[in-house]
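Worked example

This section walks through a single chain of length 548. The input is the sequence exactly as stored; nothing has been trimmed or padded.
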Amino acid sequence: MAEIHGVGIGQGVAVGPVAHMAGRLAPPSDAPSARGADAEKAAVSEAVQAVAAELNARGERAGGSAQDVLEAQAMMAEDPTLADSVAARIDAGSTAEYAVHAAFAEFAEQLQALGGYLGERAADLADVAQRVIAHLRGVPAPGVPEPGHPFVLVAEDLAPADTALLDLEQVLAVVTTEGGPTSHTAILAREKGIVAVVGTGDIDLADNQSVLVDAANDRVVSDPTDDERAEAEERRAARAAAQAAPLTPGALADGTPVPLLANLGSPDGAAEAAALGAEGVGLFRTEFLFLSSDEAPSVESQRESYRRMLAAFPGRKVVVRVLDAGADKPLPFLTDADEENPALGRRGIRALQHRENVLRDQLTALAQADAETDADLWVMAPMVATTSETEYFTSLARELGLKTVGVMVEVPSSALLASEILATADFASIGTNDLVQYTMAADRLLGSVAHLQSPWHPAALRLIKMVADGGRANGKPVGVCGEAAADPLLAVVLVGLGVSTLSMSPSALADVRQALLAHTLDEARRIAAAALATGSADEAREAARAAA
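Given that input, the structure is written out below as tokens.
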């Protein structure tokens, strides 16, 4: 028996035999084309169109966030810059296969150099290249194995197209050597409720070898004992029973209410979130309306999307984040293409203030949708760093008819200024993914610094407490909408620090609801104090476990 450690996604546990992801295609030869440039270009065009159509079709079948991811991959396949690069190589004598291989690899290197969200997309681009080359060769693209029995999938990483359509009757769990807690593999695994441990580093597991995947404890155990298997089955059954229990509002054991809300990326997920017990929406990301366009959408088209979302939650809170563009999400009509370090440049509220017409249209559409529905609409600005940015956004939003206006706390400066910011804003919502990234100076999507990306780090927990204290001093609510809220034990810690609401992927609601019901407010405060008194993320988690 040996233990392998990584980052667990969710609270599940599974036992089964290993099956490895099929390997990549062999690189194409750089021998010159024998059939001419026109024929090579025609072959590439047909292959790219076929791959894009397949990705879009998979997205339609998968729905939810998976559809957004796969549609983005399809757009990558048809990117005009890549097409020009491929054509130039073919004109210079390359075959279609080699031109695709070289052009996509060069672009992937550029993305990796940028880091952040764009760096993570390099893996998605590599998957597209493999699919195009496979189509050119007339062979199946590398993908998920089919051993004929349920299995634990082990891979370097999973492409979104594969993760989105995993057969959950066959795939018991997923283990990846690469990736972090916010990689697409992790995001989609969390959304689909897949037991997963990611970012393990190099591992030595053989096909058909038995493993126990314990996401709750961030580990993979090879050749588990009979006792370990029995314990895992007990935990699995207990978790299934908890998820099947009647839905109740989020609360602690002493009755202290802790509303549990959903993070959503489009109106399409609203019905499922409500069915899983979401008491509202704590983060509605509006980027889906903007990312596939060369110009900002009209007020009318935005209004209809917002109206659909609000109508799904009558009488309940829906927190909408205005467009968060820049850095990992550049937009031609909003952001500068030549920023040297966009992650620290004009992004979030800075980009919107620079192009105020885009912000005004979005706020106008939100106000119109609010007037047509019965939901309790709250609107917040991303990446707020100063009190002046807070004053600017809240003033403009109220001028345009919005009643409840707040900010996201994603950088240390806004946490340090929480009391002053919340003297103006109506509420704050902590985005733990970016807050940890900027606090620790560690790109949240780089496996090389994954050990610094944990929201359990006491530095991050202390900043969260400062925001909660600032909310309490001003009588303003403070929520968490980052992935930290989906960790049941960490959710208890967050409430103990003073956070009043938690928002997460809908699939995490049942686990968090169960964890909160096991502790009173005094106990949550004691558990939080134990975590705060440590010096590292691992120590904080272990201290919280011991205190709980």
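What to look for: The first strand starts at residue 2 and ends at 5.
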